[in-house]
Amino acid sequence: MVEVIVFLKSHENALISNPTERLHGAVVKLLARRLNIEEIHGPERARFCLSPIYDVSLNMVRRFEKNKKYLFRLASTNRKIRDSLLLQLAIDPIVVLENTAFEVCEVLSEELYNIEEPATDTLYFISPTTFKVSKTEHLPLPEPTRIAKSLSKILNCEIVLPAIEDMCVRTKAISFSHHVLIGFVGYLKFNEPLRELAYLHFTGLGYSTARGFGSVLVRGVHPNEKRIKELHEKFSILEKKRCGN
User: Fold this and answer.
1) Tens digits of per-residue pLDDT, 109-136?
2) Which CATH number goes with the domain that contains 103?
3) pTM over 0.70
4) Domain of 186?
């Protein structure tokens, strides 16, 4: 189980209409220099979750200012994904989105976590999350049966979720080159803990987690790295504030 926070600075002022899609392309390109394409896109691919780009206040952004700091998060159950990305960024610390160059100015990485099992009862959706219903339909709602189905598929065993105790979500969109896809952000709390939820912290949830959707933080998953832990707390507070909590 691994997690990386990458801090970037833009070399110029820029407006990028689809930064999440551009980030996905840039990260896959970096990984492909170290991994076989089947390990990234094939049926046996290493699962990873890539967030959108945020400013330091943790707002998703499309407009970038010169020399201002931004960040994105990548999490995975496979260390090869993390190690390949870090090695390539160490060799060439420039990420190009559209025609704008971003310099990697800092990287935080973690692989040691304390799972506080009695606290694993809440999911924080820090990027828009949606479930694919059909080829042309998506469901931007935290439907328990679809959450259970996704988690069961990840763990290759049947998972039964506890009842929902509290929930507050809002819709939010991500723009792609030729379409806009709507998901939900916010939080979902169950009436009792479920240790297996901790896996979603590293795999994400729902549709297209490698393209900015479905980034999830799980209450009770504590990284040892202090600054990553602080970012988790800020993200969690932000999702609660969306609902006035």
Assistant:
1) 999 899 999 999 999 999 999 998 887 7
2) 3.30.70.1890
3) yes
4) 114-241
